[in-house]
Design a protein that fits this description.
Blueprint lengths: L5 E4 L3 E5 L5 E6 L14 H18 L6 E4 L4 E5 L2 E12 L3 H6 L6 E11 L8 E2 L1 H6 L5 H24 L2 E15 L2 E7 L7 E5 L18 H9 L17
Antiparallel strand pairs: 1-2, 2-3, 3-5, 4-5, 6-7, 6-9, 7-8, 9-10, 9-11
Helix pairs in contact: 1-5
Length: 247
């Protein structure tokens, strides 16, 4: 990695220039995120496999992503994209911030998927913004927003179905959107990553007889358990802490 040109480094990933024009190498780190010292050794390997699984599935059903192929245990080759400066969140059930803002009990099913936008600026705390802010400051136009909603709801349907198939409820998730050009034509794609780090996931075995969530708290080491249930758990991942399975 020392000879590579680093393009960007975040809490969980590093982006390097790719081997071909218009590509990047996305490297998944193990390091703990801010205020989280429980990130186990091997977490980057798991998230690389999980993101590959979801991105490959999306590509196969016609939902465009930046993913090209996995290169090794920690790296994948992705398309370079111009990132829309937003984190787009879809909420299916009340969890986290929406409970605090609106006084909704944790675990409450929402009447329909709710799409929220957050301005991606860590210095500002990635604040919640409206469509009016987005179009006024030219982060995206109204057609972009319409296309983002259509894209994100297709992603939500796909992820919800996959998670339900392995006994996991997708309460909410965040994802980033990129722009790519094919000649003069621009289209929006799913970019960044899709991993438990960007989702709120609940074990459906924690439901009562009426389908309500008894314990909506986070599951210890969900990355390991989800990878095991999906059949993508690498055989050579080691951990500094023993994972707690939820079966």
């Amino acid at each position: 990695m020392a000879r590579r040109i680093k393009v960007y480094e975040g809490k969980a990933k590093i982006l390097f220039e790719g081997p071909e024009p218009g590509t990047l190498i996305q490297y998944f780190k193990d390091e703990a995120q801010e205020h989280d010292d429980s990130r186990p050794e091997g977490r980057g390997v798991l998230n690389n496999r999980l993101s590959e699984f979801f991105m490959t599935g999306l590509n196969s059903v016609g939902v465009p992503t930046h993913f090209i192929r996995r290169m090794n245990m920690r790296e994948q080759l992705v398309r370079m994209a111009e990132m829309v400066p937003l984190e787009v969140m879809v909420r299916n059930y009340a969890a986290g911030g929406i409970c605090e803002r609106l006084g909704i009990p944790e675990g409450t099913p929402l009447p329909r998927p709710v799409v929220e936008y957050y301005f991606k600026d860590e210095k500002l705390g990635t604040p919640l913004v409206s469509e009016e802010h987005i179009t006024a400051f030219n982060w995206a136009n109204q057609q972009d927003l319409d296309d983002i909603v259509a894209l994100i709801l297709r992603l939500n349907d796909f992820l919800s179905g996959v998670m339900m198939g392995v006994g996991v409820r997708l309460a909410d998730f965040r994802v980033e959107i990129g722009r790519i050009w094919e000649g003069d034509f621009m289209r929006l794609i799913i970019a960044d990553e899709i991993t438990p780090d960007n989702c709120t996931l609940w074990d459906m075995r924690g439901l009562d007889s009426e389908g309500n969530l008894r314990d909506p708290g986070p599951v210890s080491d969900m990355s390991t358990e989800l990878a095991r249930r999906l059949g993508v758990l690498p055989s050579n991942v080691t951990h500094t802490i023993k994972p707690t399975l939820i079966n």
